[in-house]
Write a structure and sequence with these properties.
Blueprint (H helix, E strand, L loop, with lengths): L1 H21 L3 E6 L7 H16 L4 E6 L7 H10 L4 E5 L22 H6 L1 H14 L2 E16 L13 E4 L3 H8 L4 E4 L5 H6 L5 E4 L1 H6 L8 E4 L3 E10 H5 L3 H35 L3 E4 L4 H14 L6 H9 L3
Parallel strand pairs: 1-2, 1-3, 5-6, 5-7, 8-10
Antiparallel strand pairs: 3-9, 4-7, 4-8, 4-9
Helix pairs in contact: 2-10, 6-11
Length: 325
C-alpha cells in the first residue's frame, strides 16, 4: 500500500507540475527609443496586444518608451546579457555584431516606401541566421523612416549642396555619400544636431519626417526636401535566450503577429509623416520634392559600388532586393 501511495503522490505531483509549466507566463521587456504615440511605439503596442490575444495572455510584452531601458546600443547589449528581452532597434546599431546589416545604409537601395516594406521577407530570410549567431532572434524589419535633407536653404539638385557643411552620423558610408555630391560632412552626435544648426556649425543634416516636427528641427532648418536617399530600417528582435525558452506554439504566435504588424507599419508611418509635415508647414517650414533624383543616384552610385564588396553578402542581398517588383 505504501508503494501505491508513493506512486499516487508522485503522479499527482507530476500532473501538477505539467499543468503549471503549460500555464507558465512569459514576460518580455521591449525597449523603444521613441515616445508614446510615435509610429514605432504604436506598432509595438499593436504587436504586444496581438501576441497577448493569440496566447490568451500567456506571453506579455511590456513596452518601455523614451529609452527608459537605455539607448538603442544599450538595449541591444541588454538583450545579449538578458536584462532586456525585445526591441525595435535601428538596423545600423547591430553592425558591430552583424556587419551584413550595413547593406541597409547604402544609398538608393530602395525605390520607394512600398519597395522598402516589400523587402522585409528577403532581408529577414537572408539575415536571420546572422542575428541568431549573435544572441538575437530576428522577427523582421519595418521602416523607421526615410532620411531627408533638412537645411537652411532650398535643395533640389546636387549642386545646391556643393560646399555646404552637413551633419552626418558617424558612418563611413554616410560620410562618403555626401562627399560624392560635393557636400562637406561633419560627424556630430544626434543630441547636438539642433545646436549645431542653430550656431552655424553645419548648414544642413538629414533625418526623418516625424522627427522634423517632434524635435522642432523646422526652427533651425526651415527647408525640408523629399529625397529618400537612405531608409532607416527598424530590426524587430528578441533575445535568443528568451526566445528559446518559449513553447513552439507561442513562437509561432509571436512570429505571425510581428509579420502582420510590420505590414501595417509602413502605411501608419506614412500617415503620421504626412500629418507631421503639414504641421511644420503651418509653423513656417517650406517643403520641397526633388524634381529629378537621377543626378543624385548617379553621383552616389560609386559609393554603393565601393562599399558593397566590403559588406558580407551585400551583392547577393542587393540583387535580391532589386529583383522585388
Amino acid at each position: 500500500m505504501a508503494v501505491i501511495k508513493t506512486l499516487t503522490v508522485a503522479l499527482a505531483a507530476s500532473l501538477t507540475f505539467g499543468t503549471a509549466a503549460f500555464a507558465q507566463e512569459f514576460t518580455a521587456r521591449l525597449s523603444l527609443d521613441v515616445q508614446e504615440g510615435n509610429p514605432k511605439y504604436v506598432a509595438a503596442e499593436n504587436f504586444a496586444n496581438a501576441v497577448s490575444e493569440a496566447t490568451d495572455g500567456a506571453v506579455k510584452f511590456q513596452l518601455f518608451a523614451n529609452g527608459l531601458l537605455g539607448g538603442e546600443v544599450e538595449s541591444a547589449e541588454g538583450m545579449r546579457l538578458g536584462s532586456v528581452q525585445a526591441g525595435i532597434i535601428t538596423s545600423s546599431v547591430f553592425a558591430t555584431w552583424i556587419p551584413e546589416v550595413q547593406v541597409l545604409d547604402l544609398p538608393f537601395l530602395f525605390r520607394d516606401d512600398a519597395h522598402a516594406a516589400a523587402a522585409n521577407a528577403v532581408l529577414t530570410e537572408r539575415l536571420a541566421s546572422k542575428f541568431e549567431e549573435q544572441g538575437f532572434h530576428l522577427l523582421g524589419f519595418s521602416i523607421n523612416g526615410a532620411r531627408q535633407p533638412m537645411s537652411t536653404f532650398p535643395v533640389d539638385a546636387p549642386s545646391d549642396v556643393a560646399g555646404k557643411k552637413i551633419r552626418v552620423i558617424q558612418s563611413p558610408i554616410h560620410i562618403a555619400l555626401w562627399e560624392a555630391v560635393g557636400a562637406r560632412p561633419v560627424p556630430i552626435p544626434a543630441s547636438e544636431v539642433y545646436n549645431a544648426m542653430q550656431t552655424g556649425v553645419v548648414d544642413m543634416f538629414d533625418n526623418t519626417a516625424t522627427n522634423y516636427l517632434t524635435f522642432r528641427f523646422y526652427e533651425v532648418a526651415p527647408h525640408y526636401t523629399d529625397l529618400r536617399h537612405v531608409y532607416a530600417m527598424g530590426s524587430w528582435v528578441v533575445a535568443k535566450s528568451w526566445w528559446d525558452s518559449l513553447p513552439g506554439e507561442y513562437q509561432q504566435s509571436i512570429t505571425k503577429a510581428a509579420t502582420e504588424v510590420q505590414a501595417e507599419a509602413g502605411p501608419l508611418l506614412a500617415e503620421v509623416d504626412a500629418a507631421s509635415l503639414a504641421e511644420t508647414e503651418k509653423l513656417g517650414a517650406t517643403l520641397h520634392v526633388v524634381s529629378d533624383k537621377q543626378p543624385w543616384i548617379e553621383l552616389m552610385e560609386p559609393v554603393l559600388a565601393k562599399f558593397a564588396p566590403q559588406i558580407p553578402g551585400a551583392e547577393e542581398t542587393i540583387g535580391a532586393i532589386k529583383a522585388i517588383e
